[in-house]
Amino acid sequence: MAAGTGGASGSEPLAGRVVVVGITGGIAAYKAVEVVSRLRRLGAEVHVVMTRAAARFVTPLTLQTISGNPVVTGLFSRVTRWNVEHVALAERADLLLVVPATANVVGKVAAGIADDFLTTTIMACRAPVVFCPSMNFRMYENPVFQANMARLTELGYHFIPPETGWLAEGTVGVGRLPDPARIVAEVVHLLQGDLSGRRVLVTAGPTREMIDPVRFISNPSSGKMGYALARAARARGAEVILVSGPTALAAPGGVELVRVESAEEMYRAVMERLPGVDLVLKAAAVGDWRPRRTHPTKVKKEGRTAWVLELEPTPDILAEVGRRKGKTVVVGFAAETEVSEPEVRAKMARKNVDLLVVNDVTRAEAGFASDRNQVTLFWPDGTREDLPLMTKEELAHRILDRVKPLLDRVKAPPGRREAAPGPVQAPPEIRRGE
Length: 434
Description:
Elements: E1 18-23, H1 31-41, E2 45-50, H2 60-67, E3 71-72, H3 86-92, E4 95-101, H4 103-111, H5 117-124, E5 129-133, H6 137-141, H7 143-154, E6 158-159, E7 163-166, E8 172-176, H8 180-191, E9 199-204, E10 209-212, E11 215-217, H9 224-235, E12 239-244, E13 256-259, H10 263-273, E14 279-282, E15 289-291, E16 311-313, H11 317-324, E17 329-336, H12 341-351, E18 355-360, E19 372-373, E20 375-378, E21 384-386, E22 390-391, H13 392-410, H14 428-431
Parallel strand pairs: 1-2, 1-4, 2-3, 4-5, 5-6, 9-12, 9-14, 12-13, 14-17, 17-18
Antiparallel strand pairs: 7-8, 10-11, 15-16, 18-20, 19-22, 20-21
Helix pairs in contact: 1-2, 1-8, 3-5, 4-7, 8-9, 9-13
């Protein structure tokens, strides 16, 4: 069925995988360009098949340039690099993604019609086939389309449901193509799955401690690192719970999102969900202090020359998780303005974590709200690894690469025997400095 060999690293989770992207004639066809680009950046070999209508929205030359492979635009296209027969391409595919998927193509496949290269390839494909519907909301809600989608779902085809939002004709409704990042995350989830069967709890974002109804104490955390970790863990097959402080970020697809505001709320949410969790990634920037008194009404400025706030400590969530963790693997995060290794080691011991991710937020391009990060990983056995500047998406997968051996050693995946107990150590290649 599939030609992909797997064995991909987390930074290129689709290395060795062949993804066929079918593009149909919908206005959202232009977004397929970003989907193809993202798939390639994750290491996939991408082949594009376009219907004649799709070529009226975006040019084959664009997709050929982005994919790095010839683009098929018809049943009798001539391509020189591989056999053009639909069966040959279907056999090579590890996954076939139709983006956007119009009502027309879904209806054809549901009815067993194969009258162009894309539908014949779908009919011949034994790999997972994923449809990303995009259309007018009335078309999407039409009972005929809903019946076709239900039939294909029963037959084992996959659907990434559309989002609600502004549509091309200027109305608001369901039918908007999902964000390309979400589509690609679902593809990785289907193809990789090295965390399949694992339950992962991620914390993200800042917390807010109210002074009065209109003022609060907080920090500049955007939540981007925690959300990237949640997406990466979900993409690798895990069941993910994301406990998030206030952010402006969209909820990752397929993730259970629990919204909180204060450190106390985050503490309760984490402790309620900790039992049965295999891995905790505690990336939230939890405020260390809160006002001892919260005023029920706005404190007026008039008549005041100074205002002294008395603060008290918030619950130490990471320390309590470390105390209760049992066989759960716990990864802590520390945002510092200067990194002292003795202090880091002392913190690891106090918090009882299996890995501590430390970043200096004063570094250019790697502080709060940045799309990139540069961190150092510390293990309890004294090993450290300095990672280069990279995107937070890449870093999320790199962290999961490092955590996976710890997870398998401390708590074996379903169906495997657990290793003998012992101190958590860095992977051998990290200890050797490879």
